[in-house]
Amino acid sequence: xxxxxxxxxxxxxxxxxxxxxxxxxxxxxxxxxxxxxxxxxxxxxxxxxxxxxxxxxxxxxxxxxxxxxxxxxxxxxxxxxxxxxxxxxxxxxxxxxxxxxxxxxxxxxxxxxxxxxxxxxxxxxxxxxxxxxxxxxxxxxxxxxxxxxxxxxxxxxxxxxxxxxxxxxxxxxxxxxxxxxxxxxxxxxxxxxxxxxxxxxxxxxxxxxxxxx
Length: 213
Ligand SMILES: [Zn+2]
Description:
- The chain is α/β, with parallel strands linked by helices.
- It has 5 helices and 10 strands; from the N terminus they run E-E-E-E-E-H-H-H-E-H-E-H-E-E-E.
- The protein has helices at about 85, 95-100, 100-105, 135-140, 165-170, and strands spanning about 5, 25-30, 40-45, 50-55, 75-80, 110-115, 145-150, 175, 185-195, 205-210.
- The protein has a 7-stranded mixed barrel. Strands 2-3 form a two-stranded antiparallel sheet.
- Strand 7 (about 145-150), helix 5 and strand 8 form a beta-alpha-beta unit.
- The chain is globular.
- It starts with a strand and ends with a strand.
- The mean pLDDT is about 95.
- The structure holds zinc ion.
- Zinc ion binds near residues 47, 51, 53, 177 and 203.
């Protein structure tokens, strides 16, 4: 079984959300300096790198990350490659763009959108394509439980209302952000991305993978 890693690497060069705490790792104990073992530590804002958003991120009464049911995070998924469509110009991702995979989502109720709009993890994107407000209810009607994308947000970078976050939560759809889908073609896969069990957290990093049986 070949596993495709669709996680962004966590490193000090990963661009954080503007103003948020950047990822940092260092060795506290170093064998090179005589310690018996290497022991590292890291710090980060929890929205750095590939991660899952909990409703508590945008709703003070929402579930925190360890409270989310894990079923959504493992199972069949459809990768939709919108790279060419969006290369013609930044615009909303509409229901029309997704129509062609409507039937596939019935058997694979996890949708991963490959936009190709964030290629270099060291540079935070200024502008990203976002889904239209009609997309979350359309996905819900097709039984979709999870939406993943290769972007740091499902809303515009400068959004204050986070309306797509709210619409997706209302539709019962969990959000996985900042995937790396650059090496993945569109189609059917098995998907897994389990958020770390950080208690009371608004999000958590996840190692996201795809495989085919
Ligand atoms: Zn997030």
